[in-house]
Design goal:
127 residues, alpha/beta, globular, seven-stranded mixed β-sheet
Length: 127
């Protein structure tokens, strides 16, 4: 899986993922100060899932065709703990057009629509 880190993702998280063979780049290295629309456009153009802690991406971009949104819905102090539990799933999981919601508890949730006119499906899994 290829990932684009939003501006709110600390460098140490990107470094950790790189050390674990994840193809990740930061928006700060491409276009610092990019708007949310530009960030999502770059993620789609480069066929990358977006790693963010910004709920805005979940609310406003989940209905677009995209390569996945990984939403860190936890405090920054918990980022590495949460990511370390799902690192293998990130590399082996197709989350295109889905949101992967990562929280501090021992579960993660995939949120997606099967058809545009149906309600969202939420499936939770243990780490």
């Amino acid at each position: 899986m290829k990932i684009l880190a939003d501006e709110n993702i600390p460098k140490y998280v990107c470094d950790y993922l790189r050390q674990n063979n994840v193809d990740i780049i930061s928006i700060n290295d491409i276009k610092k100060g990019a708007s949310d629309d530009q960030v999502m456009e770059i993620a789609i153009q480069q066929q990358r899932a977006l790693l963010t802690n910004d709920e805005h991406f979940y609310k406003y971009y989940r209905h677009l065709n995209h390569y996945g949104i990984i939403w860190l819905k936890t405090q920054p102090k918990n980022y590495l703990d949460v990511i370390s539990h799902v690192i293998n799933k990130l590399q082996n999981c197709d989350i295109s057009n889905k949101v992967m919601e990562l929280t501090k508890n021992d579960r993660y949730t995939l949120i997606y629509k099967r058809k545009s006119y149906l309600p969202e499906v939420k499936k939770s899994f243990r780490y």
